[in-house]
Amino acid sequence: MICILNETRFRMRQVNIVGSSPFSQSSRVIQTLQAPPDVAPTSITVRTASETSLRLRWVPLPDSQYNGNPESVGYRVKYWRLDLPFAALAQVVNNRLERELTIEELEEWTEYELQMQAFNAIGAGPWSEVVRGRTRESVPSAAPENVSAEAVSSTQILLTWAAVPEQDQNGLILGYKILYRAKDLDPEPRTHVVRGNHTQSVLLAGLRKFVLYELQVLAFTRIGNGVPSSPLILERTKDDAPGPPVRLVFPEVRLTSVRIVWQPPEEPNGVILGYQIAYRLASSRPDTFTTVEVGATVRQFTATELAPESAYVFRLSAKTRQGWGEPLEATVITTEKRERPAPPRELQVPQVEVTARTLQLQWVPGSDGASPIRYFTVQVRELPGGEWQTYSSSISHEATACTVERLRPFTSYKLRLKATNDIGDSDFSSETEAVTTLQDVPGEPPGSVSATPHTTSSVLIQWQPPRDESLNGLLQGYRIYYRELESEAGASPEAKTLKSPSALRAELTAQSNFKTVNSSSTLTMYELTHLKKYRRYEVIMTAYNIIGESPASAPVEVFVGEAAPAMAPQNIQVTPLTASQLEVTWDPPPPESQNGNIQGYKIYYWEAGSQNKTEKMKVLFLPEPVVKLKNLTSHTKYLVSISAFNAAGDGPRSEPRQGRTHQAAPGAPSFLAFSEITSTTLNVSWGEPVAANGILQGYRVVYEPLAPVQGVSKVVTVDVKGNWQRWLKVRDLTKGVTYFFRVQARTIAYGPELQANVTAGPAEGSPGSPRGVSVTKSTSDLTLQWTEGSAGSTPTTGFVIEARPSDEGLWDMFVKDIPRSATSYTVSLDKLQQGVTYEFRVVAVNKMGYGEPSRPSPAVSAQVEAPFYEEWWFLLVMALSSLIIILLVVFALVLHGQNKKYKSCGAGKSISNMEESVTLDNGGFAALELNSRHLNVKSTFLKKNGTRSPPRPSPGGLRYSDEDICNKYNGAVLTESMSLKEKSVGASESEASDSDYEDALPKHSFVNHYMSDPTYYNSWKRRPPAAAPLRYEVVAGAETGQHPPPVITTQSSGGVYAPAGPGTRTPLTGFSSFV
Question: Which residues cross the membrane (predicted)?
Answer without folding.
Answer: 872-895
